[in-house]
Amino acid sequence: MEACTADRQIQTVVTSLHDPYAPFQDGVTKTGTAVAFSSVTDVTPGRSGSVFRLLRNAMTTHTRRTLLLLLLTLAVGTALSAWLFRETLFANGGQEDAAQGRPPPAVETARVERATIADRIRATGTLQAPEAVTITARTAGRVDKIHFEEGQRVAKGALLVELERDRSEAAVERAAARLEQRSSAEARRKELMAKDFVSASEMDSAEAAAREAKAQLRIARKDLDDRRIEAPFAGVIGRRLISIGALLKPGDPIARLSRTQPLDLLFMVPGVEIGRIAPDQRVEATTPAYPSRRFDGALTLIGTEVDPGTRTLPLEATFDNPDGLLKPGMFMQVALIVGQRDTLRVPEAAVITEGPNTLVYALRPPAEDEKNSDAKVERRRVETGTRRDGWVEIRDGVAAGERVVVAGLQGLRDGLAVRPTSASKASDSGAPPAESTPPNESTEERR
Asked: Domains plus CATH for the chain?
């Protein structure tokens, strides 16, 4: 009986070499999976693929899950071993370098400085002229002379346009002659009335005629004056809207005149900031038109109410514009200075980011001698604030006077011995620090 069973097992395996699916016809094995595995002990190389397929098809779901779990455990163990090896290597790196006689790497350092940080509220605004008017014709007439160019800066009272004056001058002469005549008639009637030669009504008529002549003369002179169009205030002429010979009627536009010195900047800030805003606070502004320039102004007007729709408060600042670089209508980025505080800062090159962490490498011990041969670097997690002009505010993680690495950061690790040098003597010179701006866009803004 046992011999027959063995023969059937051998036959099943041999059959599988020719037809790998024969043992599983009709969905079941003829000899049993366990028997098929135990019987496959010697196969020819040319048939190995069929045997592997037989083994794969014979694996149960439980077997596959077990194999997957083993592979996952192996992967986790390998990763953990690699991490432990790396940490051990880093921990012993300085000792190994010293044991092998390699000199410590050279790094450049800079001192952690104290600085004054300005608190800013950032906004955007638009420049506008405090005075702007469209100059128009006040009387009818033909343009005789134009005394301005587009973009020209003019003074108050400067002559801009002259209309033809011949008829107006004649009208003035005629009105003056009529006034002289009626004034003489009035004077004669006064003399006659004193002698009772004229009635009171005749005297009244003479006086009325004289007053009418005076009024007509004033009108004629006003019409003559209106033919000289002058600048009502100092400013810059915009686009010219007329040409010589054009026939104008009252109200026709001639040009646009704007006062550009100084200029007003209108902007809005969140209404919740109203408690930190006061008149005459300093305002800094920049514009894409002059990316390297900063313009300084002062807060001159605080709105009386918060807009209920936007919950913002309108503000107005005044900026000097002696060179005329700023133009009405320009878009400006605004920083309203609402306060300042003392803090620490380091060069921007010293700060590195690894995932969610912001780090610096500080020297230990923090000796005053920048060439201290016993110095090592300490990996520090820091809290940063503003970034401006190549500096970064450090709110926590370092102390004033400590040195941090600004060059040679590649390959550094915690506890590594280094040869420090100073990155810049300027950082130790005691030069006054430049102002910085805090990062919170609602209350402490970056310029």
From this structure: 2-58 (no CATH), 99-117+341-428 (2.40.420.20), 132-258 (2.40.50.100), 263-339 (2.40.30.170)
